């Protein structure tokens, strides 16, 4: 099964958590950043079973996900009851469900991850109250080094690992990455006293730079400021800091936020994700790193930003004649900027047979550049005969229109490729079978034989 690169990345990321995705989930979590992947490397790597997508050889994850469904529902109900209980604390502004339960991927021994947002200047007082209450109720998750160390004793306890007050809703720049972007997008509000969920997403619109661009709310709530902190708040912060400071590892705390991640999960997940991407990554072909070609790519990028429509046309163009010119003029009329790729001598022989081309590639290129309506022209790579070669060309030149003649071969396949890269194949010229280089050469040969 072939997927766009962004959806393939999403399936790879979910595989780190042993979690197959539905197509809808893959689209909602599509990863839009990263190095280009190789179509050859990822071909047939994605498989589908029962409506779930997973990497080849990982079909057992479908059974695991279905088995976890009931477990997750039970934990979600417990989380909702916990949120209802904590909502009675007046200094809590909002409570979000995060982690495995939030995305439907909780295992039997997993705890329940909460992110708690408090009123300005009340974070450490609130945390003191919540921790004491959760310990009294026997639902407090104690610190451990590895998730694999989770035991039945940890099941359904509260992991209170993320704390913010209303002045610190925006994730700090140094902590913004693919992992935290997922945490932001996937957080599920269970209790929200006054539209904090929308404000949280609004403050963290940067997450869409990593995950499928979506409309995130823009709130116009007044900026929250802390004028002063109570003696109780200052004492609670001092007391908890003194208790924690000797055992702190990767935790980050301040008066307005607290991130408790002793497992350093973010780094571990991102390191695993990069391993996946290196497996499927593609190097930039040498052809597209050559200065002259790179200059064309850069100039086309600027023209595209200026709103110009880029039209690409390719061909042999041996012994340039009127039908070639008519085709190219029609291609130019289809947009604003005409880019022409000329088949190499080696490729021309493969397409036209021995004795062709009659003119070497440099002469063919020179004649095309003399046509005033052609904006850019270049010689295509010597080996330009696979779908991946076409994909490279479309990815780096990024035309909105690929112009062709009515007799162009493999139009359906080329149209599919163009749509994949946001463009379309357009037939701009009706082929005249009575005018062609091949026909002219045959007629000359017959004349000689007469």
Tell me about this structure.
With 450 residues, this protein is α/β, with parallel strands linked by helices. It folds into three domains: 5-61 and 273-280, no CATH class; 69-262, no CATH class; 287-449, HUPs (Rossmann fold), CATH 3.40.50. It has 17 helices and 13 strands. It has helices at residues 5-15, 23-28, 39-42, 60-86, 99-103, 123-137, 178-186, 196-203, 231-244, 265-280, 291-305, 322-333, 345-352, 361-369, 387-397, 411-420, 437-449; strands at residues 46-49, 52-55, 92-98, 112-118, 158-165, 188-192, 252-253, 257-259, 310-315, 337-342, 376-379, 401-405, 424-429. The strands form three sheets. The chain has a six-stranded mixed β-sheet with strand order 6-3-4-5-8-7, sandwiched between helices. A hairpin with a 2-residue loop joins strand 1 and strand 2. The chain is elongated.
Summarize the entry for a quick read:
The protein has 450 residues and is α/β, with parallel strands linked by helices. The chain has 17 helices and 13 strands.
List the helices and strands and how they pair.
Blueprint: H1 5-15, H2 23-28, H3 39-42, E1 46-49, E2 52-55, H4 60-86, E3 92-98, H5 99-103, E4 112-118, H6 123-137, E5 158-165, H7 178-186, E6 188-192, H8 196-203, H9 231-244, E7 252-253, E8 257-259, H10 265-280, H11 291-305, E9 310-315, H12 322-333, E10 337-342, H13 345-352, H14 361-369, E11 376-379, H15 387-397, E12 401-405, H16 411-420, E13 424-429, H17 437-449
